[in-house]
């Protein structure tokens, strides 16, 4: 589906005492950016099926971090989100998010669980530093490419490709091969309707994400829970895969995200 939204992130304590990188200050919440996004809802395993973390759910740089917390996948609904922020405290940028569903972690002698962002990419360095330092989101850099097939048609299909960086630095180089590619086709027959995440009871739709501390570089020390609000309009969208089958994770019966 396609969402034209005004998300607002609820204030939360910053999970690190380390100073921000030179030239990239912290922009504390709440954030109220203007954005449009595409959500691809992922299939959840049935109660009797094995709950294995989907292939491609982790960036290779983050897998050891989750092993330290004995992270396990518990199933439940998840989503891939593509977001184009037109206005934000750190300026315009693009973002790719993967939430596989419910995760469980060991924290000392206790266990904690919740939905988690396990893979996330942004198009510039300022949202990377703020995402990692303020919300424990394991952000890495990527180059985003949005190509509308008929630029004058607002309902034209859009081909989206995301190319990972070879290093998370203010002046990165990017892989020539995409890790994500999909053709997003808006419905021409179903209208847009108002949509507000806050109107759903938490028992029906819990928008909170639980994020464990991040490893270096740019690591954090504390756990954090973040709640995101979206208020805008929603429209049905049909995703079509754009990568070779062997390189991608199965979502909604299509393969669209590389490992």
What can you tell me about this protein's structure?
The protein is mostly beta strands and 259 residues long. The chain has one domain. The protein has helices at 63-68, 125-135, and strands at residues 2-5, 8-9, 34-42, 72-75, 78-87, 93-99, 102-107, 110-115, 119-122, 139-148, 158-164, 180-186, 193-196, 208-211, 224-229, 231-235, 237-241, 248-251, 254-258. The strands form 4 sheets. Strands 13-16-1-3-5-6-9-10-11-12-17 form an 11-stranded mixed beta sheet, covered by helices on one side. Strands 2-15-14 form a 3-stranded antiparallel beta sheet, with no helix packed on it. It is globular. InterPro entries: ADC_dom_sf.
**SS elements, strand count:** 19
Question: Helices and strands: which structural class?
Answer: mainly beta
Give helix % range. under 10%
Helix-strand pattern, N to C?
Answer: EEEHEEEEEEHEEEEEEEEEE
Could you describe the largest sheet, including whether it forms a barrel? Answer: 11 strands, mixed
Ends distance:
24 Å
- Our Rg estimate from Cα atoms comes to 18 Å
Number of helical segments with 4 or more residues? 2
How would you describe the shape? globular
Across the major sheet, the strand order is 13-16-1-3-5-6-9-10-11-12-17
InterPro entries: ADC_dom_sf (IPR023375)
């Amino acid at each position: 589906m396609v969402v034209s939204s005004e998300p607002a992130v609820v204030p939360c304590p910053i999970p690190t005492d380390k100073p921000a990188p030179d030239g990239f200050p912290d922009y504390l919440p709440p954030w109220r950016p203007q954005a449009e996004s595409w959500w691809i809802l992922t299939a959840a395993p049935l109660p009797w099926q094995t709950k294995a973390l989907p292939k491609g759910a982790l960036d290779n740089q983050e897998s050891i971090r989750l092993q330290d917390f004995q992270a396990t996948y518990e199933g439940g609904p998840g989503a891939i989100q593509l977001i184009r922020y037109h206005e934000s405290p750190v300026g315009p940028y693009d973002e790719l998010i993967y939430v596989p569903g419910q995760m469980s972690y060991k924290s000392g002698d206790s266990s904690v669980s919740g939905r988690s962002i396990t893979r996330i990419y942004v198009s510039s360095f300022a949202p990377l530093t703020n995402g990692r330092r303020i919300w424990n989101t394991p952000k890495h850099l990527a180059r985003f490419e949005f190509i509308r097939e008929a630029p004058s048609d607002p309902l034209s299909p859009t081909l989206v490709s995301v190319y990972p960086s070879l290093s998370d630095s203010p002046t990165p180089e990017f892989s020539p091969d995409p890790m994500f590619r999909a053709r997003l086709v808006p419905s021409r027959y179903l209208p847009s309707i108002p949509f507000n995440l806050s109107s759903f009871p938490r028992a029906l739709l819990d928008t909170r994400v639980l994020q464990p501390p991040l490893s270096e570089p740019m690591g954090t020390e504390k756990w954090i829970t973040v709640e995101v609000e979206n208020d805008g309009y929603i429209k049905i969208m049909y995703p079509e895969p754009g990568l070779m089958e062997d390189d991608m994770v199965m979502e909604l019966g299509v393969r669209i995200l590389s490992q």
